[in-house]
Amino acid sequence: MAVTIEKLDNNEVKLNIEIEPSVCEWEYDKACKKLAQRVNVPGFRQGKAPRNILEKYVGIAALQKEVLDSLLPTLFEKAIEENNFDLVTAPNVESYEFAEDKSLKITAKFELKPEVKLDKYKGLDVEIEEFKNADDAIQKELDSLAQRLAELKDITDRKSKNTDLVNIDFAGYTDGEEIKGGSAKNYVLDIANSNFIPGFAEQLVDKNTGEEFTINVKFPDEYHDEKLKGKNAEFNIKLNAIKERVLPEINDEFAKKVNPQFNTLDELKEDIKKYLEASAKAENERRISNKIFEDLIAKTDIKIQESMINREIQALMGEFKQRINMQGGNFDEMLEKEGHQKIYDQLKEEAVRRLKNSLIVGKIAQEEKINVTSEDIQAKINELANIYRTTPDNIIAEIQKNNNILHSLNSQVISEKVTRLLIDNANVSYKK
């Protein structure tokens, strides 16, 4: 077997392979036997059709394809390993030719990851704005817990307040036409924590149970529905019920309600304190990590080919479209309004940043010989099982159905280990 390698522009490699007749003849004969087992040739028992009959029945092209399917994975793997190629895309066969002397010539192309010329990445000087918990952070957490444990009391002897929850029927109209999806019955709305249109919840204050009234609002100019952006609207409201939160007293009994493992309020406060400290530490490490990668990306020379950037843009476009649609917007309308070029330029900037980040992580992992262990993957599986409230066995079953999940877990582990290395070796200071 003869292999020649030609390095092209844009991190592409052309692979020319020539395989001698004896190997091709042996592989061709093996392909005939394999294919004979899978097809029924009239007049012959399965697997017993002679080669010349099989060639006429299935066609020589089908047998040659069988040869290629058998040979190529091993050939490519050997060439990649011997030349230490780091591929971005799988090899693409551009042409192949079975010669009369039974030899085989194959031409394939594939993309390599761009070269990453790393500068210093350990002992970096990093200055960030330090995150600190507010002095009353513990009390705010206690108040939040009290809100969650509050009992709801029906109110019949007064008007609604801005701290109440109300049960309402509503129907919205613009230009005299009912808004699609703009009506509901027995909708419970928390007046103080509403995510409705600005001005909607505020107009539900100072109303009586059973009262019917109309409110006027204006949809925001940046509203996700193009038909409603900046539109004036009116809503017919019927207030069915008012409920008031009755907050529990924050004491030892309250602590036990939060979690039976706590016997006293002091134990709950100590647990909140540890949680807040861990959260602050995680936030500061996130800021340190962001600053480190911001600096590394700025000073690392990486020439990324346009084809790689375009694939990343397409991936980002898919994520963006899904996010817009989940928020109730129309992706195509948004694209038309904002302009294809503007969206493309924004996504291209993010695509380049993500690719550089990933390539830098990969290079550092290579330099530091950072690997993923079975224990690392098991820990990630357990983490996923906890997030999705399922069992590790169910996660493993999903991985067996979709190998991309395992690839994603591997990438996450490598990224986390590299990030930990960079943070642990950075010289961190905080802005005054």
Describe the structure concisely:
By secondary structure, the protein is an alpha+beta fold. The chain has three domains: 111 residues, Trigger factor ribosome-binding domain (Alpha-Beta Plaits), CATH 3.30.70; 96 residues, Roll (Chitinase A, domain 3), CATH 3.10.50; 173 residues, Trigger factor, C-terminal domain (Trigger factor, domain 2). Helix content is 47%, strand content 21%.
3D structure, described in words:
With 432 residues, the protein is α+β, with helices and mostly antiparallel strands. The chain has 3 domains: 2-112, Trigger factor ribosome-binding domain (Alpha-Beta Plaits); 151-246, Chitinase A, domain 3; 258-430, Trigger factor, domain 2. 47% of the residues lie in helices and 21% in strands. The strands form 4 sheets. Strands 7, 8, 9, 10 and 11 form a 5-stranded antiparallel beta sheet that branches. Strand 1 (2-7) and strand 2 (12-19) form a beta hairpin. Helix 4 packs across helix 6 (265-299). The relative contact order is 0.10. The mean pLDDT is 90.
